[in-house]
Structures
1.
Amino acid sequence: MYDTRKTVLLKDGTQAVLRGLRPGDGEAMLRFMKKTRGESEFLMLYPEEITQTVEQEENWIRRKLEDPNAWMIICEVNGEMVGVCEIFRNRGIKVRHRGILAVAVVKDFWHKGIGTVFFEEMEAVARQNGITQMELEVVEGNERAMALYEKQGFAVTGTIPGAIRYKDGRERCYYYMVKKL
Ligand SMILES: CC(C)(COP(=O)(O)OP(=O)(O)OC[C@H]1O[C@@H](n2cnc3c(N)ncnc32)[C@H](O)[C@@H]1OP(=O)(O)O)[C@@H](O)C(=O)NCCC(=O)NCCS
């Protein structure tokens, strides 16, 4: 669980808050997920696939908060959820040095530095919790995300061909990226 609360200044001078996930975030989280999935074709689900109720989402949040292998950071501007970043540590003894990352930011807030502060913060979380290797998947063509990850020290280690197939039949590969800490 991420239980820090920080105020950060974005590139355009906007004040944002980084905080952990908490009970009661369900409705805002569902709104955020539908919005970001509608704004980017690089996230795994279509917005109409976000079908859970607020109650189900609250149950999911409770489980997340009890999970010793999950850390989630929320970025808020004026009380609105505008970014979410998560790291999930693998469970088994042989693989628990590896943390898997995921990130999304609302389009109006892209390129203001939120992705960068998320990754800096998550790297600190990883180090504090014995994670020595951070990993993620990114869809071919997601130049903005690739630029962020490369800037943060991740390198492509492989691909999963045809990992994504859109409704119109287009296929995209996943790049697998790794950063050793
Ligand atoms: C990818 C994403 C998380 C980046 O977040 P962000 O808050 O915009 O990231 P930052 O503002 O910190 O910018 C990170 C870097 O992206 C790069 N970047 C910014 N705008 C860019 C653009 N238009 N084209 C290419 N690269 C760009 C820059 O290298 C930038 O670093 P710099 O400003 O220091 O040069 C965000 O765009 C997003 O949520 N996209 C949709 C969902 C998604 O793709 N998630 C990732 C799935 S793997």
2.
Amino acid sequence: MASLDSIEQDLPRLVHEAQQLDKMAVSRLISLFEDDRLGTAELRSQALGLLDSRPEPTSGTILGLTGTPGSGKSSLLSRITVDLLAAHSSLSIAVLAVDPSSQVSGGALLGDRTRMRYLPSENRLFFRSQASQTDLGGLGPSSFQVCRLLTRLFDCVMIETVGIGQSEADIRHLADRVYLVLQPLGGDEVQFLKAGIIEIPHAFILNKSDEPTALTSYHHLRSSLWLARPFESEDLPIFQTSALTGVGLSELEAEMLGQIQQPGGSGLTTREAYFFDRWVHQEWGRAGGRYLASQLGGSAAFVQQSGGYEAAQAGFSSIFG
Ligand SMILES: Nc1nc2c(ncn2[C@@H]2O[C@H](COP(=O)(O)OP(=O)(O)O)[C@@H](O)[C@H]2O)c(=O)[nH]1
Ligand SMILES: [Mg+2]
């Protein structure tokens, strides 16, 4: 990692190049947003300031794809991104894969088909894998940080994450829209109902619809939804897709594009309080969390009082550290 001084001197140029979606510049800035060394918060704050001072700042939409390993998230993303970019010449997409097997999914995403159609020189598609912060593929404060950067550069940030444990709640806080990717299970109705999981998503993707049990699984999922979320089940879309044959992808892509084109972009700043609290717990454990809650008026109040996320980090570090 470069010294902080050299990044500080380079920052305006780096930000400028990142705005042109230069892959090297985007990568270097991401490293800054993943860096938890003291002194980096000020640099992040400067970078965000430069990005936000543009006449028309980008405010990308965050779409989350979550689901158990093997359900086809990476395969879907590799097709969806390429299709969307081919159909919309001004669109840009960044993929953030937070996955215990992220190396594998990175390989899959940049696999043959993608590479053939999109040479590495295609700046509108950016891929980054991030080591997950828990063994279970959880998101964490640094995923949040990277999203703060990427939403200012790309029209859409697609996050791939394994939906287990804490990361279920995290993805709902981070993404503007969450898709749960499921696969047919040979008629095992109960799998779909696993506590907690079914309450999170805005929409469901039943992938591998080329498999023989897909239709039965679809009906099981529909009735599971009716039981688990009776008041909204009518409105919960289920996309039946196959990343293998391409069936159902155009419907899913149309709905994703609709999300991306909605005015307003990402509501990420309203989520700062949640991820600040997670950061405090990660850095200072439960003692830090208790101090934040009891002595500083809680996360939302403290972030606001401090004048933003970076200032709150610096402030908390000097009080508690
Ligand atoms: N039959 C079938 N296989 C698929 C489909 N989508 C993905 N797969 C396969 O399922 C496995 C896991 O896919 P992957 O995209 O890595 O899943 P992830 O762990 O959710 O990212 C791979 O062997 C894929 O080739 C599909 O729609 N149909
Ligand atoms: Mg994957």
